[in-house]
Amino acid sequence: MYKSDTPFIADWFVISLRWLVLLGVIVSLSISDALASWGNAILALLVFWNIILTWLAGLNRRLPNHREISLLIDLGVSVGFFWIQGGLSGPATWVGILPIISGALYFDLRGGLLASLIIAIVQASDALLHNMGILWLVFPALITILLGAFFGFISQQMINQLRLMRVKQTEERERENRTETERMRAIYKLSSTLTATLSYKRVLDMALEISTSALHVDDPEQTQDTTPKDDRLISGVLLFDGQELVVGSARRFPQADLRMTFPAKEGLLHRVVEDDENVVTDGVKNDPELKRLISLNNCQSVHCFSLRTGFNVYGVLLFGHPEPKYFTRDRCEVLGIIGRQATIAIQNARLYQDLADEKERMAEAQEEARKKLARDLHDGPTQSVAAIAMRVNLARRMLERDQGSAADELVKIEDLARRTTKEIRHMLFTLRPLVLESQGLTAALQQMAEKIKETFGQEVVVQIDEKLADDIEMGKKGIIFYLVEEAVNNARKHAQAARIYVRLSAVKNEPEIAWLQIADEGLGFDVDAITKSYDKRGSLGMVNLRERTELINGLLHIDSAPGKGTRVNVYIPLSEEASDKLHHGRVEG
């Protein structure tokens, strides 16, 4: 006995027709009042045999030489039942059709003709035995042979169609398997390529290139490892640059489209970015933002989904095609897989780029710190030491003429030396505030205020939320300290204010966002005017504020006007969720 993965269609046909023949025989016997004859017990055997075949067919199983055994049993039962019921003159003379149908279904035209020939011989023998005459000798046999030929021909045509259908199904499965294999190969190629490069531009280009290949692997006009002949797919990667989406990479975008920007505040882009929806639409002609893209004007099917990891949204992948319903479920799933892989690669590339930029900023910051130290030493202690040397020389000469005046000069020299020492100590404190590591942010800012008061006579008022300061991680504390130090020094040098205020507290209704403010009531300045001409100025105070704010993923806002003082506001997120709210404008209060 052997088993198949698919049903035996011929077995089911034979079983069904055998039940019909059995039903017909029973009806014929009932009409002729011959149903109660003991010879009909052979029908019970045929019923039992058909039940066994039905069970085997349900299990997709067959006996050894299954077709031959089935045909022989049908022939034996039919011939036996034919003789028992009186041959051609009996009520079930047509029972011979059963082996004819079995033979035709199992062995095509040859089986139908062979079975009909055997039944015809049996019928002719009955006519000869009972001397029924030439008509009964020839006519039933001829009809039986014609039925065998007819059923054999029909069976052959049907089996040919079934075989053709099976071949087509096999080819379709092979094509689907080949398509799936090619798509998996494309995705594997994407993963391998994207993990092998940290080039931002290369990642974007590869994502679009492999997306196009993966969508066309089922194209019959496409040969393996070639570009599709009918490549009408429009694709693009839109990435966030600040608060707007710009075109990072694209396929079949005209130059006008490559220069466009999108605020993503309404329409399809807003849904994808804000609600993290994967959207398939029949066009973008009515979309308030995407309708400006010339390349999408003729697209009847558009698919768009976000490049998102956690709370970070890097941008949007956009695809369009002129055919309606082009983006089927399978294609959307493939694009989704590619999109997720691309998002990881983009994240890695951006982190690498951020790291490279950070190293460059650190080098620039160190260079700027050296320049600042050189300027401060030149403007402060160096000048003071030079003045001390000149005064010492003067005092030495005065000792020879007027010792009283020389003593006064030595007192002045001592005072200048002490002030110079304080300036140097203040510079050393700002370079490395050890108290920040040992006692915390509040103590460091208080000590900074005291040293500024002691060294420069400038009053700095520090107001810190102690609990909030303790919750801030050490890395951010250091950057906050240098932000305050930079802003306070700017105010001390330019504002001419009696007091400078340093405040640190939580944003109202947002406990995970810290608000740092350095404010004074001094001269103030025109922020827009200074910003426009800032690249021509020698000072880097505002640049330092912006760069240090970026290091803690914060937002910087400077509010000032001539005669109305200055307020430097820095908003600092303490968690990823707070960062997402802050940079997407969802902070209240």
Radius of gyration: 47 Å
Strand content: 5-15%
Number of H/I helices: 17
* Largest pleated sheet: 6 strands, antiparallel
Tally of individual domains: 3
* pLDDT averaged over residues: 80
Cross-sheet strand order for the largest sheet: 5-4-3-8-7-6
Structural class from helices and strands? alpha+beta
- The beta-strand count equals 13
Distance between the termini: 80 Å
Poorly predicted ranges (pLDDT <50, ≥5 residues)?
218-229
Q: Based on Cα principal axes, name the global outline.
A: rod-shaped
Order of secondary-structure elements: EHHEHHHHEEHEHEEEHHHHEHHEEHHEEH
Please give the share of residues in helix.
55-70%
Structural notes for this entry:
The chain is α+β, with helices and mostly antiparallel strands. It is 61% helix and 14% strand. The protein has three domains: 2-169, no CATH class; 197-220 and 230-356, Beta-Lactamase (2-Layer Sandwich), CATH 3.30.450.40; 438-589, Heat Shock Protein 90, CATH 3.30.565.10. The strands form three sheets. A six-stranded antiparallel sheet has the order 5-4-3-8-7-6, sandwiched between helices. Strands 9-10-11-13-12 form a five-stranded mixed sheet. The chain has a two-stranded antiparallel ribbon with strand order 1-2. A hairpin with a 2-residue loop joins β7 (301-309) and β8. The two termini are 80 Å apart.
In short:
Helix content is 61%, strand content 14%. With 589 residues, it is of the alpha+beta class.
